[in-house]
Amino acid sequence: MAKFFCDFRFLLLIAAGAFIYIQMRLFATQSEYSDRLAVAVESENHCTNQLRLLIDQISMQQERIVSLEDERNRREQECGQLKALVQDLERKGVQRLIDKVQAPVAAVVVMACNRADYLERTIKSILKYQTSVASKYPLFVSQDGPDPNVKRKALSYDQVSYMQHLDYERVETERPGELIAYYKIARHYKWALDELFYKHNFSRVIILEDDMEIAPDFFSYFEAAADLLDKDRSIMAVSSWNDNGQKQFVHDPYALYRSDFFPGLGWMLARNTWDELSPKWPKAYWDDWLRLKENHKGRQFIRPEVCRTYNFGEHGSSMGQFFKQYLEPIKLNDVLVDWKSRDLSYLMEENYVKYFADIVKKAKPLHGRDLVLKASNIGGDVCVKYEDQRDFERIASEFGIFEEWKDGVPRTAYKGVVVFRYQKSRRIFLVGPNSLEQLGIEDS
């Protein structure tokens, strides 16, 4: 019995050993399988990541291909337009005009977009006076966009050289609700001026818009003003426009002024100034940008008392803003002034302060309320002081002139002084709180 029990324990021991061995083998097999499974999962993840990366690369390449296709289409269109422009320039002999011994005074460019009827009226007005001085003032039309009627109209004139600005870049406005048109206009202006100054190598450019008519002495005025622009670097540009040029506020077709406020609407710019402005040209609202002190840097603008341009564009990007009140009543000069025979040296910076101060000093001071009534009962020029912008706006409203300021400067102002005619020939001077001091006039 004892021997049987001993044999049984021996068998149990063998069975236990076999069981332990089997368990160890199973554990080793499971561990090996787990390792292989982990490697397989890792390999699968790697393949998945590689596949995703490949898909992303393919997607990027597809986007790049689409972008390149778009770029190619744009380039083809631009090349076609440039080819047409070169042919047009060759046909009209602009290059021969530029190469003449006497260089042009300035290129004249009409900025157009999609108003063929307006453009026709503008071109006819220009050609009425430009034909006799065409060699001095080569005429261009720069169209923004593809409007076929505008292009056809511009190309129908042999005297006109045509340029076309095709801009497919998406416009991102800086503030909600802004009109995209103002951004497109700014891009067009930069492109056109770069073309005329750098590609065609003009030293000066006169910028008009496609809703303007010009005065008989328009070209004589700018030829005389070009000398001022060359001699006096404190003059940033020369304008043919007076914001307060309505019929009831002007009288003397020979009167010119310096102004700290950029008038625009028919203006001449020199290349050296464009060299400064072009690299930092704004995305939109280029005219108000030029009125900022940080951009005009204390330089001033020449303007006439009686406008040499008339803006008839009631419908356009500005939606006819102020047209009835301020633009429609503008007086377009009808006197043929021979500007080259006139001495304009009084407009030079070193002479003008004294010249203008002498005029202001002779004006009779006027105070209090009911200024229009009081001015009506006083003979001769009148001087009215204003304390601040709000006070100026009140006085300007009484007389009916522009109330607007930009960057601390009223429209048309010179050293804070706004001058306009009243009851035909008499002048009203609205004088700022620091104006007399800047003019060197003792405040009485």
Automatic annotation (TrEMBL):
Function of the molecule: Initiates complex N-linked carbohydrate formation. Essential for the conversion of high-mannose to hybrid and complex N-glycans.
Subcellular location(s) of the protein: Golgi apparatus membrane
Coiled coil: 51-92
Catalytic activity: N(4)-(alpha-D-Man-(1->3)-[alpha-D-Man-(1->3)-[alpha-D-Man-(1->6)]-alpha-D-Man-(1->6)]-beta-D-Man-(1->4)-beta-D-GlcNAc-(1->4)-beta-D-GlcNAc)-L-asparaginyl-[protein] (N-glucan mannose isomer 5A1,2) + UDP-N-acetyl-alpha-D-glucosamine = N(4)-{beta-D-GlcNAc-(1->2)-alpha-D-Man-(1->3)-[alpha-D-Man-(1->3)-[alpha-D-Man-(1->6)]-alpha-D-Man-(1->6)]-beta-D-Man-(1->4)-beta-D-GlcNAc-(1->4)-beta-D-GlcNAc}-L-asparaginyl-[protein] + UDP + H(+)
Cofactors demanded by this protein: Mn(2+)
GO cellular component term of the entry, any: Golgi membrane
Pfam families reported for this sequence: GNT-I
Record InterPro entries: Glyco_trans_13, Glycosyltransferase_13, Nucleotide-diphossugar_trans
Pathway it works in: Protein modification; protein glycosylation
Membrane topology label: Single-pass type II membrane protein
Record note on cofactor: The cofactor is mostly bound to the substrate.
GO molecular function terms noted in the UniProt entry: alpha-1,3-mannosylglycoprotein 2-beta-N-acetylglucosaminyltransferase activity; manganese ion binding
Enzyme Commission code: 2.4.1.101
Record keywords: Coiled coil, Glycosyltransferase, Golgi apparatus, Manganese, Membrane, Metal-binding, Signal-anchor, Transferase, Transmembrane, Transmembrane helix
PANTHER family on file: ALPHA-1,3-MANNOSYL-GLYCOPROTEIN 2-BETA-N-ACETYLGLUCOSAMINYLTRANSFERASE, PROTEIN O-LINKED-MANNOSE BETA-1,2-N-ACETYLGLUCOSAMINYLTRANSFERASE 1/ALPHA-1,3-MANNOSYL-GLYCOPROTEIN 2-BETA-N-ACETYLGLUCOSAMINYLTRANSFERASE
Gene name in the database record: LOC115702863
Family statement: Belongs to the glycosyltransferase 13 family.
Organism listed in the record: Cannabis sativa
Protein name: Alpha-1,3-mannosyl-glycoprotein 2-beta-N-acetylglucosaminyltransferase
